[in-house]
């Protein structure tokens, strides 16, 4: 049975997960915003998604003036897959770290090899 949780509480869990990111990575995040959305319109099963140009792909000469990259964390599928708030806390943290890794240019294969797939 899906966990019931207010949007405010879920946003707090995302903020808590961001606080777990080591300082050297948090300060290196450049031009990125993290948002909570209910679900992805194209694929409602997605837990999170990174939209943007990874730091490893950016060229300073043509990167100026662009909109921030975006990490979307999808509330509904995360709540649906969990049976307790403790599970939601864990899954939100995993999803946030996973999407931040994409911001740093870490691909799916590497994430799976590291156990974050």
Could you explain how this protein is built, in words?
- There is one protein chain.
- The protein has one domain (7-57, 64-114): Zincin-like.
- 44% of the residues lie in helices and 14% in strands.
- It is α+β, with helices and mostly antiparallel strands and 117 residues long.
- The model has no long low-confidence stretch (mean pLDDT 90).
- The radius of gyration is 15 Å and the shape is globular.
- The protein contains five helices and three strands; from the N terminus they run H-H-E-E-E-H-H-H.
- It has a three-stranded mixed sheet.
Distance between the termini: 24 Å
> How many strand segments?
3
Mean pLDDT: 90
**Helical segment count:** 5
Q: How much of the sequence is in beta strands?
A: 5-15%
**What is the 3D shape?**
globular
CATH structural class: Alpha Beta
CATH structural fold name? Zincin-like
Poorly predicted runs: none
InterPro entries: Zincin_1 (IPR010428), Zincin_1_sf (IPR038555)
GO molecular function: peptidase activity
Protein name: Putative Zn-dependent protease with MMP-like domain
Pfam family, one: Zincin_1
How is the topology of this model organized?
Elements: H1 7-19, H2 23-28, E1 32-37, E2 48-51, E3 69-74, H3 75-81, H4 85-103, H5 108-113
Parallel strand pairs: 1-3
Antiparallel strand pairs: 2-3
């Amino acid at each position: 049975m899906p966990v019931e949780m207010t949007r405010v509480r879920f946003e707090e869990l995302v903020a808590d997960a961001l606080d777990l990111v080591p300082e050297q990575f948090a300060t290196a995040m450049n031009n990125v915003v993290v948002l909570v959305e209910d679900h992805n319109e194209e694929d409602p099963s997605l837990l999170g998604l990174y939209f943007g140009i990874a730091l490893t792909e950016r060229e300073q000469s043509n990167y100026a003036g662009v909109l921030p990259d975006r990490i979307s964390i999808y509330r509904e599928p995360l709540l649906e897959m969990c049976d307790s708030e403790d599970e939601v806390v864990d899954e939100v943290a995993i999803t946030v770290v996973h999407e931040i890794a994409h911001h740093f240019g870490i691909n799916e294969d590497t994430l799976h090899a590291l156990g974050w797939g």
